[in-house]
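Summary of Year 1 activities. Much of the first year was spent building the evaluation harness for sequence design. The harness presents a backbone, in tokenized form, and records the residue chosen at every position. We chose the following record to illustrate the format because it has been used consistently in internal testing since the harness was completed.
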């Protein structure tokens, strides 16, 4: 792919065991591509291999086998050129010197990296674009977590990277700071053409900023592809049904034989009762069976609403092994059900 900024081919990382203990496989046979101008999300539970993958892309950890290319440069044969095109913002607690200001941190780290003298000005302009310019000369340890994260990003972007690596970038942030940071990440990809690779446990973050996702478990890829195609797989399967009448307990049991009852709420008034169900089905046609079941129970259907596709539901299905992807879905699956 011509615009592939990151290419990983058959990458495996095994950590040696201590004192003769068996080694631990962190990543096994990973094939991955991330393109310029797009955001790739690495998703998966703890121990899935996300952080190890980020660390290998940053050059902090060497793969046990396989090859990693950054903008065409191999980490094995052209390591310096590859790393020069990568910037990282992995841990805001250690990414900046807390007693220095954001401006001083930018000046220091860009000098260490050997950047041109205009790098400081570039970093300060990014800080301003993130809405944190007024904190340029305040000590880092006096800033909020959100402002610290923006300072980390500004410092990384001062180096003009073609690939930006983020590990849980919104972790610990309040909602306004998280939304601001998501907007900043989208801006980097869309306006600057930066390839952003981020790991996150927060599905709302992944759905709002990522173009593509790679779902991992046990060091292996379960599925990868565009967010839009992954969501399309689940678009016609979840519904909310509102009814009028008193719901007999047997109704829920009958519905559970047709689909998955994700939620059920009821309320009663002097004259009647109301209830709503959130249901998920294996096929679109199953909704008709649920409607007939409710009508046969003497309930009046008030509304049937198809729920918007949700990355969290798709992710849960993939991690649980409850769905298998194939080429026709537009999502590439590898391996089997995660252990």
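For this record, the design step produced the sequence shown next.
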């Amino acid at each position: 792919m011509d615009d592939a900024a990151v290419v990983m081919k058959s990458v495996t990382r095994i950590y040696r065991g201590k004192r003769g203990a068996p080694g631990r496989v962190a990543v096994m046979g990973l094939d991955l591509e991330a393109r310029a101008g797009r955001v790739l999300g690495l998703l998966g539970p703890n121990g899935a291999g996300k952080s190890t993958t980020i660390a290998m892309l940053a050059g902090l950890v060497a793969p046990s086998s396989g090859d990693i290319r950054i903008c065409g440069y191999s980490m094995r044969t052209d390591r310096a050129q590859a790393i020069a095109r990568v910037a990282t913002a992995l841990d805001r607690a250690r990414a900046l010197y807390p007693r220095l200001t954001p401006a001083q941190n930018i000046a220091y780290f860009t000098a260490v990296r050997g950047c041109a003298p205009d790098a400081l000005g570039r970093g300060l302009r990014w800080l301003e674009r993130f809405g944190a310019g007024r904190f340029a000369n305040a000590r880092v340890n006096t800033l909020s977590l959100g402002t610290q994260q923006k300072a980390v990003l500004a410092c990384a972007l001062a180096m003009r990277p073609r690939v930006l690596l983020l590990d849980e970038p919104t972790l610990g942030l309040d909602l306004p700071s998280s939304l601001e940071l998501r907007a900043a990440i989208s801006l980097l990809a869309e306006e600057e053409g930066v390839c952003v690779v981020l790991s996150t446990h927060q599905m709302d973050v992944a759905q709002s900023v990522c173009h593509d996702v790679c779902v991992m478990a046990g060091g292996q890829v379960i599925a990868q592809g565009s967010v839009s195609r992954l969501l399309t797989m689940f678009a016609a399967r979840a519904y909310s049904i509102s009814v009028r009448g008193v719901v007999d307990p047997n109704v829920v049991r009958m519905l559970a034989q047709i689909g998955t009852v994700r939620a059920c709420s009821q309320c009663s008034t002097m004259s009647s009762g109301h209830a709503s169900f959130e249901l998920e089905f294996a096929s679109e046609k199953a909704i008709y069976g649920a409607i007939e079941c409710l009508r046969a129970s003497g309930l009046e259907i008030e509304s049937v609403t198809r729920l918007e596709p949700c990355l969290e539901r798709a992710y849960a299905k993939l991690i649980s092994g409850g769905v298998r992807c194939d080429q026709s879905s537009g999502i590439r699956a590898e391996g089997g059900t995660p252990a």
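Residues 4-226 form a domain with the Rossmann fold fold (CATH 3.40.50.300). Quantitative recovery figures across the full test set are reported in Table 2.
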